[in-house]
Amino acid sequence: MDNAIMSAASLHRTLPALPGQHSRPVFRSKTRLVRCSNERQVLFDRIAPVYDNLNDLLTVGQHRIWKRMAISWSGAKKGDNVLDVCCGTGDLAFLLSDKVGPTGKVVGLDFSKEQLLIASSRQHSQSKTCYENIKWIEGNAIDLPFPESSFDAVTIGYGLRNVVDRLKVLEEVCRVLKPGSKVSALDFNKSTNPFSTSFQEWMIDYVVVPAADIYGLANEYRYLKRSINEFLTGKELERLALNAGFSSAKHFETGGGLMGNLVAVR
Ligand SMILES: C[S@@+](CC[C@H](N)C(=O)[O-])C[C@H]1O[C@@H](n2cnc3c(N)ncnc32)[C@H](O)[C@@H]1O
Fold this sequence. Notes:
Blueprint: E1 5-7, E2 13-15, E3 24-26, H1 38-59, H2 62-74, E4 81-85, H3 91-100, E5 105-110, H4 113-125, E6 134-138, E7 151-157, H5 166-176, E8 177-188, H6 194-214, H7 218-229, H8 234-243, E9 248-254, E10 259-265
Parallel strand pairs: 1-6, 4-5, 4-7, 5-6, 7-8
Antiparallel strand pairs: 2-3, 8-10, 9-10
Helix pairs in contact: 1-4, 2-3, 6-7
The structure holds S-adenosylmethionine.
Residues 37, 40, 44, 86-88, 91-92, 110-112, 115, 140-142, 157-159, 162-163 line the site of S-adenosylmethionine.
Family: Belongs to the class I-like SAM-binding methyltransferase superfamily. MenG/UbiE family.
Catalytic activity: demethylphylloquinol + S-adenosyl-L-methionine = phylloquinol + S-adenosyl-L-homocysteine + H(+)
GO cellular component, one term: chloroplast
C-alpha cells in the first residue's frame, strides 16, 4: 500500500502495478469534494499525461528556472513544514522537498486525481530519500483540509489563475500559514504592456496551441489565452492578497514579463 497519498477525507485502495511501475493509488473520498470547478478538474485530468513534456517543450525548460525562483521567494528552509497548492504533477513540491530536506515535511494538494497519480509515480521513480517527506493530498484549494497556522511556507504554481474563487483560495492560504510566513504564487503575467500581451497571445496561438495539437489537446490549450485574459494584473493580485488578509504583498515580473510571481506575507 502506498501510504504517501491521501485524500482530504481519506482514501485507499491499490490498483495492480503497471509493468515497470510501483503500485498505483486509487482515490476514494468519503466526503464529497467541492465540484463547482468540475470542468477545470476534467481538463487537468485530461492533460495530465502530457503536461510535463509540454511544459518543457513550450518553455524550452525555462519553467524550471521560474519554479526555482518561486521556491526561493517562498522563504522555505531546512526543517520547514510546507504546502504546495495546485501541485499538479509535483514540480514545486519536489523542489520544496529538496529545500526543506529530510527533517522537513511537504504536502502537495490538487483536485486532479490524474495529476496526483503522476506526481506519486514520479516520487517513487526517483531515488532521492528526501522525497519520502512528500505527501499527496486530493483536495480543493478553496477549502484546505488543514488547521490554522500549519505551514512555514506555501507555493502555488500556475494554480491561482485556474481556480474559480481566487479570493477564497488566498484567504485559505493565509489561514493555514503561520504568522510572518509567505505564499509564493507563480503564474502567467497579465501584463499591462500591450507589446507583452500581444507577444504572449502570439506565442499561445502560433506555438502553444499547435504544439498541444500534436498531442490532440489543442482545445484544452486554447483555454490558456482566455484564462490569462480573465486573470489579474500584478497590482490587482497584490490588492487581492491584502483583501485576503495578508499583511503585505508584492508582485514580480519574470521571464521577460511573460510570467509573474506574487509574494505575500501573512
Ligand atoms: C497548470 S497546473 C499547475 C501544476 C503545477 N503546480 C505546476 O506548476 O506545474 C494547475 C493545477 O491546478 C489544479 N487545480 C485547479 N483548480 C484547483 C482547485 N480548486 N483545487 C485544487 N487544485 C486545483 C489543477 O488540477 C492542476 O493540476
